Amino acid sequence: MHVRVRLFGTLPQFYPGNYPSSGLEVEIWQDISVAELVDLVQVPQEHVAIVSINGRIAKANDAIPKNAEVKFFQSLSGG
Amino acid sequence: MKFLRVNMTTQTVQWEDVPREYTTLGGRALTSIMVNSEVPASTDPLGHENKLIFAPGYFSGTSLVNTGRLSVGAKSPLTGGIKESNVGGTIAFSLAKLGIKAIIVEGKTADNKYFLLNIEDENTASLISADSLKGMRTYALTQQLHTEFGEKKSITCIGPAGDFQLLSSSIQSTDLDGRPCRAAGRGGLGAVMGSKGLKAIIVDLKGKIPAEIADSDRFKKASRDYAKAVKADEFSGQILPEFGTAVLVEPINAAGAFPTNNARMGQFKGVDKISGETIAKVIKERGGKTKHKGCSQCIIDCSNEFVTEDGTYVTSSLEYETIWSMGGMIGNDNLDAIARLDFLCDDIGLDTMNTGAALAVAFDAGYREFGDSEAAIHLVEEVAAGTEMGKLIGNGPDAVGRHFKHDRVPTVKGQAIAAYDPRAIQGMAVTYATSAMGADHTAGWVVDQNLEAFGGTVEARGSEGQVEISRNTQIHMAAVDTAGICDFAQTGLATEEGINNVFTMMSAKSGQPFGQADWTELGRRVIKTEREFNRNAGFTNKDDRLPAMFYNEPLPPYNVVVKVSDEEMDSTFDF
Question: Where does residue B484 fall: left (phi above 0), alpha (psi -120 to 50 degrees), or beta otherwise?
Fold first, then answer.
């Protein structure tokens, strides 16, 4: 099972490897949660504020389906 | 500090001492309290009784970073209510350094005569005949005025839209590079300036009058700590310099809150082409500028310079709200066209948000296809040409809706919503509906509480808790706009230590004790004043509502409507 993870804003700098602009292919396990995926990708959780799964905003405990596109975003301010 | 009162009827200027009751005010509190006090609420916004007031923030001209903010206040011809429109650039700092607490422009010229207001130093200001400048676009105008009056001038002006007194007309102000690309965009205040016969205000940049601060050592220490916090914050210290506000495009789209095709959808399929990440990449590849400094005292540098493929300047700064209004809102994923439309709005003197929404309503009514960027550019050019269609677009979404008998018009009190659909982020529904300004995202931006911490601390698509967070944010923002702190530098006050630094600076400047209760009371006073003006102008609770489309049309992809009830809306300001 795998998912594609895309990092936005300045998040790519926190990824411990070379981040390809097309995103990361990440092997996952059944019922992995959003919070667990953030840890798996090794982006420090304090830098991730918003996660979407297939174009829908996700909660920390939401399970991630296989072949999903997952986006990580940072904290926002202003407007 | 002094007031500079400018009477356009008699073409005279007068320096006045600041009345005692105004000495501890600045920015939005000063403009709103003075408008409420001096302008009859029922008056014609384009008549001689309206007043146009320019006031730097309370902290403008001090050592505090990111305080180059100017409030422009008047009765709005767009909403019919009170208006405070906020702009950066160089004018607030330069006025403060000349010891000017506010410019009050009153009366109006006879026979549509036009003038420039030239503020040469702290004692010298005059009106100069300028009939020949009427109709001139802002880039050519500021270039000519810089040649004539010198480069070391801050220029605040109107373009053809303001000259025509159109309801979406902006007041444009020069940035640190001398370009008129900073906009007090909202509320049609360019039309008020045009109605008075004032084409531009020229302010000398060489003022050196120190800010009046009762305890400067205490102020300096708190301001240094504040600046460190702004720099240390991830958003203001790293993300904004790299991507600008355009970084919001992807997450807001992911939240299904990016109003697309006149808010028929909450996600835009062309989002990849107009995201902050894409824009930064394109700008760098073409030799433009990210991390560009637009405003006096700025340490964030969220501005950018967008250029063509051959490196020629197009516009500065391409920001989130415009990327939405001239992008997703009209179904346009052509980044170069968005940049061109941004430039045209600055050059013609138009609010990009109201104008984009006006185009969206026209497209939605079938006048053109969504995504037709050439038609959008042509229609905005028509505003400057003064055609009938151009006047409709320049008068905003309500005017376009009436013309086409089309009722999908995303405005509150006549002013277009911003780039957050109120169905997908329902706290923004409360802010849009209840702000005295009309639909105004800066009045109470509650996106973070709705989306962050993995899905929000409130349910974004529900009503629970939304009134409270909007109320608290609106009160807080009224105080922030009074202090004159840039929206994006609020990262410096996000912690208890940070907001305490603000209180320390308020106290150190005024010489009076200041704490949380005073901050809240300041914000509440501003909001009460603004609502009082609107009530006197004839507004009722029924004006604190969104248009029917947001209550009746489920927004894809979440297929949700606004759930905040009328009773909840009416409980927002329970003071």
Answer: left
User: How many angstroms separate the CA of residue B418 from the nearest CA in chain A?
Assistant: 9
Of the candidates A52, A59, A79, the beta carbon closest to that of B441 is on A79
Q: How far apart are CA B206 and CA B332, in angstroms?
A: 43
- Judge: A78–B490 Cβ closer than 8 Å, yes or no: yes
Q: Where are the domains of chain A?
A: 2-73
Q: Residues in chain B, how many?
A: 575
Confirm whether B431 is domain-assigned. Answer: no
Q: How far apart are CA A67 and CA B251, in angstroms?
A: 20
Beta bridge partners of B411: B416
Please give the structure tokens belonging to residue B84.
């405070």
Residues with pLDDT less than 50, chain B: none
Distance CA A1, CA B463 (A): 37
Q: Which domain holds residue B49?
A: 2-204
Nearest to A79 among B254, B275, B442 (CB): B442
Number of neighbours of residue B206 by Cβ within 10 angstroms: 12
Q: Is residue B38 part of a domain?
A: yes
CB contact at 8 A, B66 and B21:
no
pTM strictly above 0.95: yes
Q: How many domains does chain B have?
A: 1
The reply to whether residue A79 touches residue B247, judged by beta carbons under 8 angstroms, is no
ipTM over 0.90: yes
Architecture (CATH level 2) of domain A2-73: Roll (3.10)
Neighbour tally for B291: CB within 10 Å: 15
A interface with B, Cβ–Cβ below 8 Å: 8-10, 34-35, 47-52, 55-60, 71, 73-79
CATH number of the domain that residue B75 is part of:
3.60.9.10
How far is residue B124 CA from its own chain's centroid? Answer: 29
**Smallest Cα–Cα separation from B430: which of B385, B460, B398?**
B460
Segment B504-525, tens digit of pLDDT: 999 999 999 999 999 999 999 9
Residue B114 lies in a domain: yes
Work out the number of other CB atoms within 10 angstroms of the CB of residue B19. Answer: 9
B95 part of a folded domain = yes
Q: How far is A37 from chain B (nearest CA, A)?
A: 13
Paired tokens of B449: 């509480």
Percentages of chain A per state (helix, strand, coil), in multiples of 5? 20, 30, 50
Predicted local distance difference test score (pLDDT) of residue A79: 61
Task: Enumerate the residues of chain B whose CB falls inside 8 A of the CB of residue A49.
Answer: 448, 451-454
- Contact: A9, B247; criterion CB under 8 Å: yes
Cα B550–B555–B558 angle (5° rounding)?
Answer: 135
